[in-house]
Amino acid sequence: MKTARPHRPVSPVSEPPGVRWALIALGVAFMGLFLVLPLAAVFSEALRQGLGAYLDALRQPDAQAAIRLTLLIAAIAVPLNVVFGVCASWAIAKFEFKGKAFLTTLIDLPFSVSPVISGLVYVLLFGSGSLLGPWLRAYGIEILFAVPGIVLATIFVTFPFVARELIPLMQDQGTGDEEAALSLGASGWQTFWRVTLPNIKWGLLYGVLLCNARAMGEFGAVAVVSGKIRGQTTTMPLQVEMFYNEYQATAAFALASLLALLALLTLVLKTALEWRFGDELAATGGGH
Amino acid sequence: MDVRVDHVRKEFDRFAALHDVSLDIGSGELIALLGPSGSGKTTLLRLIAGLERPTAGRIFFGDEDASEKSVQARNIGFVFQHYALFRHMTILENVAFGLKVRPRATRPPAGEIRRRARELLELVQLPGLEKRYPNQLSGGQRQRVALARALAIEPKVLLLDEPFGALDAQVRRELRKWLRDIHDHTGHTTVFVTHDQEEALELADRLCVMSQGRIEQVGTPDSVYDHPASPFVFGFIGESSQLPVNVERGDVWLGDRPIGIAAPEKQGDARLFFRPHDIELVEDGAALSGVVAGSRRVGGTRRVELDIGGAAHRVEIDLPFDHPAGERTQLAFRPKRWRLFPAT
Description:
In chain A, 77% of the residues lie in helices and 0% in strands. By secondary structure, chain A is mainly α. Chain B has 344 residues and is α+β, with helices and mostly antiparallel strands. In chain B, 26% of the residues lie in helices and 37% in strands.
């Protein structure tokens, strides 16, 4: 008879404890070095000269203008992308049509294109040397180096967030609920507001959060089209860079800390949503 | 309201799901569309509902051509296999939905809508659950709610797509009786789709047996069971065995032996169909005789598998479970009721 060894509560498919701890420690150290440390640096730099200097830095006109512009851009770009995202996911999830796979791929395009290119596209489209440029100038319409250009670039970059979140969710839910509503006499519009929208609301909110975070934080595409006119076309990320280049470290980090706070808030809300409505969001395949 | 399906054809991407199907459904009738998966039964139901458009043919509600009408305009009640209850609404809100979305001119006042919804929940024996949400209910309860919701709009026709398909056997049997009671109580013209022949035989006034996009036979459960019109129906409804036989000189032959069945009007190769319980054991004379290959008890009967003509053909027959012949290794029998179909 073999010597009976006491059972240890270790699953036969898991690694030995030493390996597990080493892997966890490695992961935590890596995160600390590359994520937590820089984040802490942003806040410590911002508050190095005390809370008064921090608030003064945020109160100066350039910072105020940048904050206002960023909020304006997000307020335009996010709702437009919500409308587009819902329409596109509705079309893709609920109907069969030719070119569906192509449309799905196209929606992902902004993810795979460098943001600088996304900005450059609009320069090529609306710049003075382009086909549309002279025509726009003749009518006095400013797109490049003005708010419309920034909005367009932001929409382009944040294009996929809402749609990507909703397409798998809506495909998973199928058309049963909508058919039931129609058979009960509801119009298409009533079906959308009373059945479809409530079914996707948490996924939609999740997509809006991510879309908003990116819209406020976008640098590359916006940098190309904005022209960086102080107080007029500088969004928060651009203003951070400007302050930094002008050796206004406190101002730069103060503004940066706001963006970091936005990111943290987004993360908290996202986690809260996942925790509370994990079942409904599961269909999205874990987000991004 | 009677429903007439008139030479309807339906194609999906060139694939024909229904070929030229015609069916008359009487007012107040409970009819089952029965067939294996892919037979087109759900497609036919969805065409009647208006959830699909026919490629050709027309559908009449009474004397009115409903083919071009939208699903909303047809005023049908539809019950889905997976309930399709609105998960963010309470049970009461679910049932009241069809009345709430009516245009203001025809919408009853809010109090009246609530009263009607409560009444319906009582009809489906779910009073007291008004404030619950669908995910707090069992499958059987959800399907009752789905039916109450469909009945709320006072439909002209009630259409059910495998209504009990997602439920376990016990609940299914219960709901079957209950649906029959509701139907007798409300008198709606009801069409339901099922692949479960037992359900169809027990519940329906008439069966419409379908296969590969065509209607094979329409009739009462008894007539379809007793007089199947095609080999498919014989095989699909109830248990059956078949043997390749030969008809000559008024007798049916298996190989070189007559089997004791007279078939005066036919000639040549044929397929013989019979049911396991429609047989009699015989001791002598022309008969089918076989070697017992296996036997198992199913409830009150013993199902015996027989190899006939060596191991060339295997058939099944039923004996009472305590019949002494169940111990034997060789049995001879004659079908009491049978049918010959042309050989294919």
